[in-house]
Design a protein that fits this description.
Elements: H1 32-40, E1 48-52, H2 59-70, E2 73-76, H3 85-88, E3 93-99, H4 106-119, E4 122-127, H5 139-146, E5 150-152, H6 158-171, H7 178-187, H8 192-209, H9 215-226
Parallel strand pairs: 1-4, 1-5, 2-3, 3-4
Length: 227
């Protein structure tokens, strides 16, 4: 049919694996203190420590590095129940992910902290903000949470954001040039989640159009988004 648009190729959702290995962690000023904490284990100031920071700041990657070293299990605070607490501490080390105010039963958490202390277990909590400032009804639990040392991660600077974008492309087995990286960093939100969205969008669009991932493609996508 005259004037008809050519059929659009569907992009296949190919599996890829984001590496959480120690050698693939990208260090910068925003996460140096948190990485130093992980590297100094077991010489920690407390058996319970917290990593705090915005979504995508690297908390889960650091927790994975520590878990690899210690054999720690992972658990979500929302999934904990009193009946299974002894089993989650079976290895003597535990990562509690997405620790947030109001997302747990206070009695269960208090029991978990007591049990960890009795068994000499080590716990690493990941949270958006420090539990020391949360509103807690159980006075003894509030006291325990205030005593947990927290190491904060912050939003990345440009150098770290560039390095993370390169890593995200490399996780997808894509090599990209500096022109593309500079273009993205100048236009995107300064956050790791935004970097993941940008990399995923470029990868999918490149597959759909059967084109290389480069600055020209990024310019088209960002120009279309601005309309």
């Amino acid at each position: 049919m005259p004037g008809a648009s050519p059929p659009r190729q569907l992009a296949l959702a190919l599996d890829y694996s984001e590496s959480f290995a120690r050698e693939d962690f990208v260090e910068g000023p925003s996460n140096a203190s948190a990485l130093a904490l992980i590297d100094r284990w077991p010489d920690w100031p407390s058996r319970v420590m917290a990593l705090t920071g915005p979504q995508g700041s690297g908390k889960s990657h650091l927790a994975a590095i520590w878990a690899e070293e210690t054999g720690a299990r992972f658990v979500s605070m929302r999934a904990l129940d009193g009946e299974h607490l002894p089993s989650v501490l079976a290895t003597g080390a535990l990562v509690v992910e997405d620790f947030s105010e109001g997302a747990f039963d206070e009695a269960t958490l208090f029991h978990l902290l007591n049990l960890a202390q009795q068994e000499g277990a080590t716990m690493l909590l990941t949270a958006r903000n420090s539990p020391a400032g949360w509103t807690i009804g159980l006075a003894d639990l509030a006291s325990r949470l205030r005593a947990i040392p927290a190491v904060a991660l912050s939003a990345p600077d440009d150098r770290l954001l560039r390095a993370v974008i390169v890593k995200l492309f490399a996780d997808r087995q894509l090599a990209v040039d500096e022109n593309l990286i500079a273009y993205l960093v100048a236009r995107m939100e300064r956050s790791f989640p935004a970097a993941r969205v940008a990399v995923d969008r470029l990868d999918r669009e490149a597959m759909r159009q059967q084109r290389p991932v480069n600055r020209a493609l990024a310019a088209e996508l960002y120009r279309d988004s601005a309309r």
